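Troubleshooting log. The previous structure file for this entry was overwritten by mistake, so regenerating from the original sequence record. Sequence copied from the archived sheet and checked twice against the printout by T.R.
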Amino acid sequence: MATQVNQDLLGKIDKLELSDRIQRWQRAMKACPSQIYVDRQKLALESWKETEGEDIEIRRAKLFKNIVENVPIKIQDFDVLVGRLTPGVIGASTAMDIVGDYIPGIWNDDGKIRISITNNGILSRKDLEILRESASYFRGKTAPDLAYKALHSLVGTWAEDYEEAKGKDPVLSTGIFPGTSATVMWKKILTKGLRSIINEAKENIRRFTENQQNGIDKVIFWQAVEIVLEAAINHAYRYAELAENMAEREEDPIRRDELKEIARICRWVPENPARTFHEALQSMAIVGVCKNFEHPMHCHPHLARADEYLWPYFMQDVKGGKIPLEKAAELLEEIIGRWGSQIFVATSSFRQTHQINYGIHNVVVGGVDGNGNEVSNELSYLILHIIGLLKMSSPTVSLRWNHSTPSWLLDKGLETNMKTRGGIPLFQNEEHVIASFVNDGIPVEESREWFGLGCVQPVVPSRVKHSGCEGAGTVNVALVFDLTLHNGVCVVTGKKLGMETGDPRGFKTFDELFNAFKQQFSFVANRTLWLARAVREMNEKHLRLPFMSSLITQGCMDAGKDALCPDPSFHIFVMQDRAIVDTADSLFAVKKLVFDEKKLSMDELMDAIDTNFEGTSGEQIRCMCLAAPKFGNDIDEIDSMVRDLGKFTAGVIRSYDNRPYRNFGVVREGLSWHYFGGLGVGALPNGRKSKEPLNDGSISPMRGADVNGPTAVIRSVLKAGFDEAQASVLNQKFSPSVVRSPESRKKIAIYTDTFFRNGGQHIQFNIVDTKELLDAKVNPEKYKDLIVRVGGFSAYFVQLSPEVQDDVILRTEHSL
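Regenerated output below.
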């Protein structure tokens, strides 16, 4: 049944505007340059030198303690919630103690440190030397460095060569480890406080000693938990002391009272259970920033299912009349805005896969609870409204759809999409997600508590998910097909990466080509998963993250295990098989043009591909390839090809023997991976030229090829199914007129609802005019706030690379 809500409260929410305080923060944020702060790195290096010879878990705990108890802190004039990674409004810390010498340009003397595709970070010469010292010290000693060394002993340079060809993502140097992108157990933290978890660790140690148990590493982990959680509490105390000192000097009585309130709250949370909505958000702000301090590249906090765990506080304080709605909204605006604007220093490959360097922080609204009850409420509605007011490219916002999703939530989601324009929120069919987890053996009560991680990836909070960890994130299906066309050689790099499956010029039937591809894919996927296992075994020897581990899932605390030490009982694994549509379109073009209609010989097609369709004959052949039937136009034969190919690649991944752990699942998300993956792939028979981006999303049609309207696209998607994947991303671009009026928004609401009721998994809408995008590319200064959906995340259009800008521009603009 539809959730019953207070319609008067929804009406009041609709009238809310951003407070003056939040507008001051926005102006400061936009005026502030991106700055790299070295304080965390300096303290990390200091601690690591002092603890040499101690246990790795304790060393990492002491490193964390040294950082959070000594890093400079600041309370900005517009802060009511405190807790920032750097003293600046916009600032980034570094993580060389985790991944080594990873920052592009650090050894250049031009003073420019590129931290994203289009953005340089500010750094003084003195600070640069501090980073260089740290990079030199940690180079060759980190988990990724030592993993690469181990892989080299197994397969020579194959792993590096495969990365160079964009065969997989992420590369090890991006620093993605199990759990680093996950949220924490907010419900436990808010209702019990960190002190209770410290006591839990102490009790576990007491029982271990009293019962003379085995496995001393458990005790060491629990000891590390005590160290890091005490340090986090002390971090809050530092803000309390700072606020008290500032209050003594503050002349404005209103601000003085605010500072005193900050001090009072920080002396209570996160150490103790939150008692109010304000305390809950302050507890989250401190815990979130501490998670970031431990690993600033990827340990971004997520609000996740805030409308579920914050609901009791909201109901008590707002619906109970203890604080005005405007105050609750301002507090939410502050934490959403701060986390959505947190930046980090990205590696070269990460800049290509993500384009931007904002942490992909995720907020989820709607959906069912563990008992299957729809939990959408007024707080869900308020969160969407705030997202529409802030108009930021981050966070990613996920609206969980099910058959009981109330129309007011879906309508508000589309209204928010109209305001943000760039695919915010995304819409995800949670009935498919839940069924996927249940089919993989996760109890239904746990499966229902899923939330979106990063772009769109579903995660259950009871498990540590290996997604992209150990370098087993994405296998580039289009590259595998390219290897098939060139007998195992990557045409872009010239290096042999695959099997010798034969020269396709000599193939007599389409089945020979398809079978050769299947052999190549099985070889590449299995080798990638095998090497990932070796990396997994290396990582736990050289890195631990005790703060994150103590808070992301109960399994770590119960087992006495860091998240980097896999446990079959609560670790799960997934891999992505991307560029399936590109490969299916290419296979179908070869089948049609060469083997069925015989309009081309394989020699003619390969000559055109190997010359990147150059010359008159090459361009003619490319036109034939582009004209071949494409996915997304409701054509049964090609839609079936996409379906069958998806089932095959997923079957290979799922069949890999991962004992004693669960076998790998499959997820197909977005990012800007299609740009990254395309850089390693030569020209394809679908008409795409060498190194051009691949298809966006994971089940989106080739840009510009979906010519039969938006409903034809979703019919193709429904036929392709992709039921074997936990999530699959479909991007669609619509004219702004589609959501301009309540009547037109109703039409797209029906469109979305119908798609899901027929089995669709995921959909997100770019509400943008192509002419506007073209003008934005020429006149970026006029469009600094223009947001577009890239793959599974949103970004400011002017911050994207020209290639990705063109990719968005060339997507078909639909109307209803």
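The mean pLDDT is 94. Archived copy saved in two places this time.
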